[in-house]
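Handout, page 2. Input:
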Amino acid sequence: MAENHNPVPVLSRRERQILDVLFRRKEATALDIQAELADAPSYSTVRALLRILEDKGHVRHREDGPRYIYLPVVAPAEASRSALRHVLDTFFEGSAAGAMAALLGDNGAAITEDELKRMESLIAKARKGGK
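Output:
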């Protein structure tokens, strides 16, 4: 089993959905977020999830009169790296090569020539030690 390289706490599906709304909107109230969620949970559940996201360090809030306005703390690029690390650890035993093999397997034809060239460039860079 691969070790967990992810210091960021794992997010639930709903927590990821809430962060997606915040990344898209830049800031939102709990009511705004609830309105954008598919099969939305109750308002109190959204508020509870926002508190959990604050405790995990992904979200912060500011007060606007009686309302809380929530903002993402984690940059989208950092959140995507965290999510990818979680997928690698969960489904590919931490192996980037395993994930790439899965991508290139059945759906390899869906990858464009530009994407393949970018992957080749990233692999060449990794071989050189990231320089």
